[in-house]
From TrEMBL:
Protein name: D-xylose transport system substrate-binding protein
The organism's place on the tree of life at top rank: Bacteria
Keyword terms: Signal
Molecular function per GO: carbohydrate binding
Signal peptide feature range: 1-28
UniProt keyword annotation of Signal present: yes
Originating species: Nocardiopsis composta
Record-annotated Periplasmic binding protein domain positions: 50-311
Length: 377
């Protein structure tokens, strides 16, 4: 994706923006702190914010994260510029994008790292130029200024508990054998999801096969599931832990190709539209809904605080301390994930305006119980 250097013009008036900043400890003008030119910036004059997102295989980033962040930044800083790039899951590409933004004089970086360890180079380079870095969704190493994400171990626990619940409903028994298909080993969140899931699943079920999936690739997940089917046997797989919805699509494809009509319970994450549709159709047992708007809004608050030299105090959110992979302690806000099964779709993604009923209930899903009930209500 080509760089977009777009002047953000929010609907909120300047006074409202200042009030929003004061509510989170972000004053309109400041002294102290570090930016690319060695001076602090003000909301009244505006400054430049770089947003670096990791990939486009997962639908959320371009559809939700970027526009939500753009909107939140405009509300908080009417005269701020946003520079945006997506790395398409390429570490070297993200490094080049960050270097270009720093060369262009960006004043604060919001970084969702492709590779958390490799991203330390981006962080150190920014720090050497006095540019603060906010880690978004994934905790980059190198000592970032702030971090906002979800409680990622709890995501794994939520998935694990849901899978055990489904197995119990199907009376799978204590000797039930499952397959675990985890996320990308370069993503620290994937390691947390995996650890949280193991906390719940270990000792409760037998894990027949387990894989880590480079790049969160649905195609690789499909191949891994095919290998598991060959090793275990399609009829002997009681359930599948899938770390996200994209990979769940590949898993479903592999099972269907193997002639499995009655699919085992499969987990997911991100509440992608296709994932929600599989949930209401009974092809995927659950997904994890992470409300992206508040995450993006907090990232905007953190970015404005960092650029203006203020300390982000969390506002209504509690701040915790987390360690990155290099042992650096970072101030963080960790939001709570929500499990979504077929009977919870309306009260979560629909109620929040994440998707409309019309978006979910396309022709292929119109006859599902969910869509039938929604059309009658």
């Amino acid at each position: 994706m080509k760089s977009k250097n777009t002047m953000l013009r929010g609907a909120a008036a300047g006074a409202a923006a200042v009030l929003a900043l004061l509510a989170t400890g972000c004053g309109a003008t400041t002294t102290g702190g570090g930016t690319g030119d060695g001076e602090t910036h003000s909301v009244d004059e505006g400054f430049s914010v770089g947003l670096l997102l990791p990939e486009s295989k997962t639908a959320r980033y371009d559809k939700f994260d970027k526009p939500y962040f753009e909107e939140a930044l405009a509300e908080r800083c009417e005269k701020c510029d946003l520079l945006y790039q997506n790395a398409d899951q390429q570490t070297s590409k993200q490094q080049s994008q960050a270097e270009a933004m720093l060369t262009d004089g960006v004043d604060v970086l919001v970084l969702d790292a492709v590779d958390s360890e490799a991203a330390a180079g981006i962080v150190k380079n920014a720090q050497s130029q006095g540019v603060p870095v906010v880690a978004y969704d994934r905790l980059a190493e190198g000592g970032v200024d702030y971090y906002v994400s979800f409680d990622n171990k709890e995501v794994g626990r939520v998935q694990g508990r849901a899978l055990l619940e489904a197995l119990d409903k199907e009376k799978a028994g204590d000797d039930a054998e499952i397959v675990m298909i985890n996320g990308a080993p370069t993503d620290p969140n994937a390691g947390d999801f995996k650890a949280g899931a193991h906390e719940v699943l270990d000792g409760q079920v037998e894990i027949g096969q387990e894989f880590d999936t480079p790049d969160w690739s649905p195609d690789r997940a499909q191949t891994q599931m095919e290998q598991a089917i060959t090793s275990i046997g399609a009829d002997d797989i009681a359930g599948v832990y899938s770390a996200n919805d994209g990979m769940a699509a590949g898993i479903v494809a592999a099972l269907k190709s193997a002639g499995v009509d009655d699919l085992p319970p499969i987990t997911g994450q991100d509440a992608e539209l296709a994932g929600i549709q599989r949930v209401i159709a009974g092809e995927q047992y659950m997904t994890v809904y992470k409300s992206i708007r508040p995450e993006a809004e907090i990232a905007a608050d953190m970015a404005v605080a960092a650029a203006t030299g203020e300390e982000y105090d969390g506002g209504e959110h509690s701040i915790s301390k987390v360690e990155d992979g290099s042992g650096e302690e970072v101030s963080a806000v960790l939001l709570e994930p929500v499990s979504v099964t077929a009977d919870q779709v309306e009260e979560t993604v629909v109620s929040d305006g994440f998707y409309t009923v019309e978006e979910i209930c396309t022709k292929d899903y119109a006859d599902t119980d969910f869509c039938t009930e929604m059309s009658e209500s």
